[in-house]
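Hi there,

I know you've been waiting on this one. I reran it after we fixed the sequence typo, so this is the corrected version. Both the input and the resulting structure follow.
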Amino acid sequence: RETTRDRTMEHNERQMRFALLIDADNAKADRIEDILSEALKRGIVSVRRAYGDWTTQQLAGWKNYLHQFAIQPIQQFRYTVGKNATDSAMIIDAMDLLYAGNLEGFCIVSSDSDFTRLATRLRESGKIVYGFGERKTPAPFKAACDQFIYVENLAPIKESDDLEKNGIQPKTTKDLKGDTRLVSTIRAAIDANADDDGWAFLGKVGSHAIRELPDFSPKNYGYSKLKDLIDNIKLFEVKEVPAREGLSNSVFIRDQRPK
């Protein structure tokens, strides 16, 4: 399928516009600043809405965040105990926004698999879909997004204890080599983008990996950059090509296995 970065390039002449739709019943208020910051890296977040039953004490902690980040609260009463009406309201609004035709993409904040079909439907209409949720998010919803970002990865790490607490302590070379899903994904990405000598541009490898695994991120393995992750796997050759002054060096990798 078409990768997020590929579709982003189609709109490179103007900033893309996104809707940030938050399932407040299923998201933590103190994560919203980091989520919004990440969303703003992709373009203009012109629609910002949070859905829930704002008459309940459960959502009281959201008030300051809604004001601070200009997020519109959408009231949805709970008609039946144990049933979440928020999902339906959020899905209906998302479809209304889709048909209005003013947006290039959606950011869906939830760890609920009920939004799997919505993400799939938005992508079928050519929209970019970013999912934001916790690591517990069911696989179908993650797979339905162009890219799924774990909110745990967005929090700044200040102490070594926080690494272990957030489940992103840097994995050892032994663990990385033994992760067949990771290694096979990177090898497939290299093969798909390699030149005649087997070298592939690191940026394209990362894009291809996200295409195959929407929740792929070096931070899942405890590394802030893809190059650091590749270096520590120790199954791939890495070379840097110096760039002109003021530009970053270009990084290329290839499989160390003999052809």
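Quick highlight: The chain is about 35% helix and 20% strand.

Best,
R. S.
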